[in-house]
Amino acid sequence: MKLKNPFPQEVRELWRDTHACQLCGENGEDHGGLELHHITGRDSRSVLNGTPLCKICHAQVGHTKEEEQYLYVKALARTASHGWILGEVDYQYLRDHDHLRLENNGYMWDWLLQK
Predict the structure, then answer these.
(1) CA angle 96, 102, 28 (to 5 degrees)
(2) Which of 29, 37, 39, 58 has the smallest C-beta neighbourhood within 10 Å, fewest atoms?
(3) How far is CA 45 from each of CA 7, 25, 27, 30, 37, rounded to the nearest angstrom?
(4) Where in the chain are the domains?
(5) 64 — alpha (psi -120 to 50), left (phi > 0) or beta?
(6) Centroid of chain to Cα 64
């Protein structure tokens, strides 16, 4: 999968071998390809702000709090499963987007921000 986006190369590479939209689960090939979506908008190049979506889902993104939280959890799980080490841009993203904090992940959120 080739991802065109202003994310840093290492962020694009993290998602490169994902062959399904993170919203509908469909193969991007059958839905116009996959694009690396900015979860909260183009306000950060953090790995936690990116997730692959098919073109159909990407066109319908509503940027609701619930949608952003859902995609953020998927991004966080992906980074953890690949041993990604969060950097300052990632910690700044967390500080700037407190609305992503879920009621059941408060402990993890606090731990992340202590780094």
Answers:
(1) 85
(2) 29
(3) 5, 24, 25, 28, 11
(4) 9-114
(5) beta
(6) 14
Q: Which ranges of 1-115 does DSSP label H, i.e. alpha helix? A: 9-15, 55-59, 65-81, 88-96, 106-114
Structure tokens at 9: 């190369």
CA dihedral 90, 11, 79, 86 (to 10 degrees): -30
In tens, the pLDDT along 44-87 reads: 999 999 999 999 999 999 989 999 999 998 898 888 888 888 89
Q: Report the distance separating Cα 10 and Cα 18, nearest Å.
A: 14
Q: What is the pTM of this model?
A: 0.81
